[in-house]
């Protein structure tokens, strides 16, 4: 079973349209990649956003942190690494890294917290979210989906 502190790695090859005039990935694309990482983490945990939304829950971003270490360039092979940083009944935070990897490490995988992540760190950061209902009122995950809450808070 996936635990909150487990890294889920999702491979992406940098596409030409993701780069800017300087030949590097436009900074805003990393935010999209963080979202892809969150989606894949939830999917690897046995859920998907569609099912969560069918339970009447939404998960808007309330904070974003992003630190750029090295640029990614066209056709680079990267993995988006994602794990749960913190969870309460009302909030959840994801930790994210984008790492440039060799073709040998260019695949989806799960890495325990005791293992090293592959490749070279390019970007690190994360997002914080609040659980809300369809009326955008705070919702307690432990009441609406207690099994998901237990999974997210397990460290």
Write up what this structure looks like:
With 155 residues, the protein is an alpha+beta fold. It has four helices and six strands. It has a six-stranded antiparallel sheet with strand order 2-6-4-3-1-5. The longest helix has 16 residues, at 29-44. It is globular, with a radius of gyration of 16 Å.
Keywords:
155 residues, alpha+beta, globular
Task: Compose a concise summary of this entry.
This protein is of the alpha+beta class. The protein has four helices and six strands; from the N terminus they run βααβββββαα. Strands 2-6-4-3-1-5 form a six-stranded antiparallel β-sheet.
Largest sheet, strands/sense/barrel: 6 strands, antiparallel
What is the helix tally?
Answer: 4
Beta-strand residue percentage: 25-35%
Overall mean pLDDT stands at: 96
The geometry reads as globular
SSE pattern, N- to C-terminal: EHHEEEEEHH
How far is the first residue's CA from the last residue's CA? 12 Å
Strand element count: 6
Structural class: alpha+beta
Strand order of the largest sheet: 2-6-4-3-1-5
What is the fold's blueprint, element by element?
Elements: E1 7-13, H1 29-44, H2 49-54, E2 61-68, E3 77-87, E4 91-100, E5 109-111, E6 120-130, H3 141-144, H4 146-153
